[in-house]
Input
Amino acid sequence: MRSIPNIFAIARREFFIRARTRTFLLGTAILVVAVVVVAMLPVITRYVDRSSTERIGVWVGVEDMASDPVADLERLLNTSAGGTSSTSSTPDFTGPGTRTSPLLGKP
Output
């Protein structure tokens, strides 16, 4: 059964012939650039939109919590790569049982 080695030989030859064309090289370069841009899109978006701050509301229905959920969320969401919190602001109180907190850096 000589067909499998022939298939590999033909596929190899076709690949090397097509890989040397300008269209293949240009298409590959464009594809690589597009993949890198799509992969970096969250970082680019965060860099462009770094002036805005998102705020969320935390409502707690129980009175006897072991820790403050707002402080826990701030510690989890505002931790930088070095492990330190990037915000020092205090949350706003908007009503009974509801607290809002800046989540993406300093306001």
Q: What stands out?
A: Residues 55-102 form one domain. The chain has two domains: 3-48, 55-102. The first strand starts at residue 55 and ends at 59. Strands lie at 55-59, 92-95, 98-102.
